[in-house]
Structures are given as C-alpha cells and as structure tokens.
Amino acid sequence: MRLLVLGGTKNLGRHLVESALRDGHEVTLFNRGRTNPDLFGDVRRIVGDRAQPDALAAGEWDSVVDMSGILVRDVRRSAEVLRDRVGHYTFMSSIAVYASKVIPGQTEAAELLSWPIGAPEDEFSMELYGPSKVRCEQVLTSVFGPATSAIRSGFVVGPYNPDFGNWGEALATSGTLECAARPDQPIQLIDARDLADFLLHVTVTKASGPFNAVSGTLPMAELLDAWRSVVPEQLPINWSPPTDRFHLPHDGSNDGTFQLDNSRARTAGLNLRPPEQTARDYITWIRTGNTPPPPPH
Q: Which InterPro entries does the UniProt entry name for this protein (predicted)?
C-alpha cells in the first residue's frame, strides 16, 4: 500500500511508521522536519506545514493516516488537498469527544461534544481539544464519507510515549510509584504498539467509522499492582504526590470517560497485550538509556 502519514516521527507516530515498514508498505511522511529529522532515513519525506499542505497536491496515495490533526482549520485544508488523492482517510482522534463524562459503557454512537458558538478554528486550547476532535471527524466524513475512520484513544503507554512514564522510571530505578488518582478510579489505556498496529489495520482494510481503541477498564490500584508485579521488589506507592500526572477528578465526574465500550474495535481486529508486558518493555527501554518524554500538559 502507498501510505501517507501526516506526522510520524515521534511518540505513537513513529510506532505507526515502524509497523507500516515492517509490513512492507510504501510510506511517505509529511511534516515540518523538525522532530527526529534523521529517523526513517530511507522513507520519502515531504517537508511542509499543516497550515499550508499544498505540497501534497503533487502526489497520490492509497490511504492517509493523520497523526497530527488538532486545529480544525488544518484538517479542513488537508481534506481539501487530499480529496481526490487518497482512497481512505484515517484520523487519530480522542476519547475526549464524548459529551458525557460519567455514563459508563458508551459506544461510538454516544452523543458527542458540540462546537462552541463563535469558537475559532485556527486556535488551540485544552477547552477546545474535545470539540476540535469532533469537528475534525465531521469535516473528514463530509469530504470522504465512508472512506473515513476515526480512532478514539486516551492514555497511550510504552516506549517513546509520555503517559505513565513516571511509573516506568520508578520501576526501572527502584523508586516510588506516584499516583494522584484515587485507587478505585476506573482507567483505560493502550500500548502504543497495539494502537499503531490497529491504526495500520484499519487503514489497510479501509474500515469505516469511529472506533474506541482502548483496553478494558481496570481500577487504578489494580493497574498499578500489575505494573509493580514485574519487578522483584515491593516498591512503595505515593497516592498524594506533589505533581498530578493524571489530572483526574476524585469526585467521579470523569469516570465514564474511562469505561468506554471497546467491542467494536476488538471485533475489527484490535489486539491488546497485558499491562505486565507493557511495563516490562517500558523498563527495558528506560534501562537501555531512554527517557520518557514529558507529559503534553
């Protein structure tokens, strides 16, 4: 497959490109060339900015995977340029799209956030993150119709990714595991490699529609114990650290966000490795000289 990747040189994006090259696909990267510019030296690159994607007008691809779409304006421009140049558009969305943060078991058909009246399409703020992802999905569906898929995910863990990086470092250095969330806080996450493989699978098979690409739900304490079990020491846990890496309210007002129904994605081919395996691999990655990137916010 001729695959265009918007982004593709950091965090989840580099896993996607690694998966695509592993499976023999012909990859083209489109990005600014600022992050890890020497990565994937044999892959074709088109240097450009999301705000001005005109450089893409000279090519054609079987599918595109959009790893960097946040501003609605930029996604709209990409859609306009690629309208007749790709056969399928896969968009990396978010579990932040859902209107309710408390209802458990929501499927992809649940009510989504609405776009705030008068909100700018060319500015980013955390308040607009969820609505922006919704609007981007809608823009792409209006252009590509059923040749659109949206992958909704939340915490992405493992090598090259920031989420749960403090746990990985604590396990790798026999430190203290810090968790500001309450012990019974429901949580869902996904290994970056599993998510990358699913992104590629959806793109290759040209699956249509949105997918909740998340694990099953676990209480935070159970997930922490699973990670802690992969080292011989019984490392201490600090449930009241000075820095909150999770930003999850203790009053249950966001619990539904991490109790989503993932059955549609599982049926479509999402495979999930156990959390212990992710923890072991993260420890190995850190002990071989790597450092988790800082959290995005």
A: NAD(P)-bd_dom_sf
